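User: Can you predict the 3D structure for this chain?
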Amino acid sequence: MKVTKVFSRPLMRQSFRTNRILAVACTLILCMMTVVITYAGNLLGTTETVDYTDAQTDFYSHLYVLASYNEMMGTELSYEDFSESEDLTVYDTVFEMASGQSDDVDLSCENFAAAADELSESEVGIDAYISQFEYVYALGNVNGCFSGDELDIETMMTDMLEMMGVSTDLVDTMSEMDTSAMLNQMYFTVMCLLPILLFIIFAGNALVVDQVDKGSMAYILSTPTKRSAVVITQAIYMVILPFVMVGCAFLVKLAASQAIIGEVDIAKYAALYGGMYLLAEAMAGVCYLASCLFNLSKNALALGGGLNVWFFLCSLLGMFGSDSMVDMGIGVEMLGRFNRVTIVGLFDINALGTVGSDAVDYAFVPKLAALAVIAVACYIAGAVRFQKKDLPL
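Assistant: Here is the predicted structure, written as structure tokens:
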């Protein structure tokens, strides 16, 4: 009778059958989250404001000429009157006179209307631009009654924000915030990690210790199957299934990005999902080791599952201690210390996100190597321990 020492196909088939519902459910959740986050990223990308600086400057130049002319001549020329009037002769005259005084400006009714039409398409609206100009024009002609300094709209807004307790640095930081990096951080460390983590904890516990606890391991070892074949087969299973799950998410990400956004950075996402897989394997290794150490399922679940849940919660808290969260005013710098006590901190999303660009940050290389070492060490230690320990058969 042939003795199986390395790999058992019947045991592998049994493992697939036992965990198939859990694997399919977690993979579907992972893929759905991938589509949702891709769509959300596209929405944030399409809400980027268009640069209306040139149109605003042109529009304000025409308004300034009209305001100056009104002061000198006592007239009541305005954009509202301009937009409603059929006879624009007086406006042509005013703009022509102003243009004749300087070669740097090109003022005309056509340019005034074109600038107004462009600003009307912005989220702000033309009325807001006119109101802002009135403040700017008024303050530009007034000096402080005590300081004697020239008053301007920017200083007024800064003073108002300070009185409201809002830091101007915070406003600048939020305006420059990279929303795509924030979404990647949330997706890979929370939304993507959670379903994979659930699968790893429950499947890892069911592969070895659960069968010992229930007594089915006695039947397996009563067949021509060595302990070495058991641990190697189950380790291969824990290598294959997370790879399939992460691979499905990667393919869905590529397809969703192409369909929703219209373009996809294959190198970048290959690096990110590759790092995600190594993190998953490090966590799987911890569960596998715990499953091989104990004979009671509850003990293995407490150690392997407990450690991985701890890693996940620490990464969640650590995310609110990141520089971006702190700069936004919704994070606490002290929480950043939690990133040092979790293996999730070795998954450097920001560095991996530079793959495929002209300035690749290779800081992720030693961190991913550390995850690979953790995974391999846990698998080997678990296999050695299972083969040597006494089993209640």
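The chain has a mean pLDDT of 86. The two ends are 22 Å apart (CA to CA).
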